[in-house]
Design goal:
The chain is of the alpha/beta class. It has four helices and five strands; from the N terminus they run E-H-E-E-H-E-H-E-H. It starts with a strand and ends with a helix.
């Protein structure tokens, strides 16, 4: 299977670390959105789109790329993200899952509109020092950690099994 991961990751490279963990079992190539040629994406059996979460959505670069994609015949994709929500304070895993799905909705809608089948969603905590948080040392320091990266790898393994 030929797999491509398109990743926008720049503050602390949280999402890039997750993408690297996924790339290993998938044998995937990792590129930034500005390096992804929309016309060439049909050469891939599976494409992962990932970034940090910004205002409850993927990075604008990914959303803009999705808008430029040609129609996909039987294209398969998955979405992944990292976010700065203080995961240590969240009581319910179901709340985190619902938040992830809501955060992924804008990109998912665009991709489905182009004919892509979304085969999975993944989210991990990411170190967040945006705005005033840097004054307090940020949220989720050390995240994604080894356990988060192992979960990302297990998610990728599951994609191969399906």
């Amino acid at each position: 299977m030929k797999v491509l991961l398109i990743v926008s990751s720049y503050h602390h490279h949280n999402t890039l670390r997750v993408a690297r963990a996924m790339a290993q079992p998938l044998g995937a190539k990792i590129v930034a959105p500005d390096e992804a040629d929309p016309a060439m994406l049909s050469q891939y059996d599976l494409i992962g789109f990932g970034s940090g979460v910004y205002s409850a959505a993927h990075h604008p670069q990914l959303l803009q790329l999705a808008d430029r994609l040609p129609a996909a015949e039987q294209g398969k994709a998955f979405l992944f993200s990292t976010d700065g929500v203080p995961h240590f304070a969240v009581i319910s895993k179901e709340w985190l899952r619902q938040k992830m799905l809501a955060d992924h909705a804008a990109l998912q809608k665009r991709l489905e509109g182009k004919g892509y089948q979304i085969v999975g969603n993944f989210n991990s905590a990411g170190f967040n020092t945006n705005m005033f948080l840097k004054l307090f040392g940020g949220f989720n320091k050390g995240r994604p950690n080894a356990e988060d990266l192992a979960q990302a790898k297990a998610f990728a393994d599951g994609l191969l099994a399906s």
